[in-house]
Design brief:
With 211 residues, the protein is of the alpha+beta class. It is built from 5 helices and 6 strands. The chain folds into 2 domains: 127 residues, no CATH class; 72 residues, no CATH class. Strands 1-2-3-4-5-6 form a 6-stranded antiparallel sheet, with no helix packed on it. Strand 4 and strand 5 form a beta hairpin. It starts with a helix and ends in a 5-residue tail after the last strand. The structure holds zinc ion. Zinc ion binds next to loops.
Amino acid sequence: MTPAQEVGQLAAELKPLLARLAELLPESVADPTRGTTGHHKVSGSPAPWHPEAGPVLMTIHAGVRDLERLLRYQITGHSGEDRGGSDGNTMAALDSIIRLVHGVPDELARHAVRELNRWIEQTRQIRDIGESERWIPIHVPKGQLPPECPYCRTYSLRVAQESGRVRCTNPKCEDGNGERPRAHIEKNRLDGSAVLVWGDGRSQYYYGEAS
Ligand SMILES: [Zn+2]
């Protein structure tokens, strides 16, 4: 997978996370341009500015615009007009980044990958997004080796204990679909054995405990 392709994938991952971030904020703050057609959160006390979501969302709104300007400047020699401040404009800037990144040097595309990864991590660490899982090495009985990643053949697999999701933390690794490898654990109720089922359909005997 090229850095430009990875940007497309990460941007697609970031979009729904942004929507969830915005949901944590009072509607008037989340999107002042939306008017009164949407549903309003009605509660006894006014919804406060979410202490974690607000700053992260602002960081991403600004960062996405900066990144778009940087890529556009690289290609056209001018950074284009500034976008307004709505969520819709951030989504449009992300779409623009996905297109522009194919025209820039790999080094700059890799910079975009790092930025997007950072924003995704920052979002996932917010408590109310519910994805702030701790990724830990896979525990195996004494004397056994943990399962190796079936794609890169390294011991880079980590498991999120709460959800049983598994991923490969080797940033260069990709599965049979050219995507970053993700799996979930499926337990056989009859004999207690477990397999990892990967996103591209591959399954693999899983040595450790599933919980
Ligand atoms: Zn791997």
